[in-house]
Amino acid sequence: MTHVTCARCVVCGATYEAAPELTVCACGGVLEIEYDYAAIAQTVSRESFARNPDRGMWRYRAFLPVEESSPSPPLRVGGFFAKLFDLSFTSFITVSIAKVLFVIAIVANALAWLFFIVWGFRAGAPLGILALLLGWIPALVGIVFSRVGIEYFISVIRTAENTRDLLNK
Ligand SMILES: [Zn+2]
User: Fold this and answer.
1) Pairing outcome for strands 31-35 and 15-16
2) What is the rounded CA–CA span in Å between residue 125 and residue 118?
3) Ligand 1 centre and the CA of 16: distance in Å?
4) How far is the CA of 5 from the centre of ligand 1 (A)?
5) Under 8 Å between Cβ of 44 and 52
6) CA distances from 77 to 57, 80, 82, 120, 163 (A)
7) Residue ranges in the chain whose pLDDT is less than 50
């Protein structure tokens, strides 16, 4: 790491070569990463930040103790509402609401079965019993189709996200 000079102990001041697995000094003190700000200033500037479209944590990669050769895995930040009102459409909301949609689908199908039973018994006992015994089949088929539909949309979104991440590299 050319932008990191060393890992310095906050207690005794001993210095070590910065390494991910080394976080504590021999004396027990915590090691603090020291950066070579002169070297960092060669790679970033106010202008480079203004041009950088990355709004994730990797925007500040130059200030993180990460090897130059390490990849930048995407880390999604922001909650449901941040994504809902994300006007740049760089993150996708469907994945986060898929769980909710699926629960709604289960409840809706269960209610449809219940409605079917009530309607059946009103029309006569045999029809009610038939609805009770067999009504779960269309409900289950409905849940399966909702699941398949949601999974299809998620796979499309995942593909789009992966493509975008590849382009950003
Ligand atoms: Zn120490």
Assistant:
1) unpaired
2) 10
3) 10
4) 17
5) no
6) 9, 10, 9, 50, 19
7) none
